[in-house]
Fold this protein.
Amino acid sequence: MASRVRMHEFGITESIINIVLDKAKEAEANRVTKISLVAGELSGFVPDCIQFYFEFLSKGSPAEGATLHFESPPAQIRCRDCSTVFHPQDTVWTCPSCQSESVEIEGGRELYVKSIEVE
Ligand SMILES: [Zn+2]
């Protein structure tokens, strides 16, 4: 199980680095100094894991040594019956207003590169 989770982060970190290096190239930058990432509470990504793979995968590239900054937007669940948006308590996803269990994820599942700083 643990190794599956780690592979998950490995793949996404590779994608992050590819995006960042593309952008750095576009900007004709020599070096990437900071990368701001958004990893929602429900995205399942562990910042420490991404940080670990980042250091490994960025070696020798213009992104080596860049600081990773994480933002973690909270999970947001929306009730399909009364449209209340709420933050789930543990694993119980029941609408606090009408007790409906017909809910959907509104936010908190995102993972993307928000911005990068280069020099
Ligand atoms: Zn409701």
In short: The longest strand covers residues 32-39.
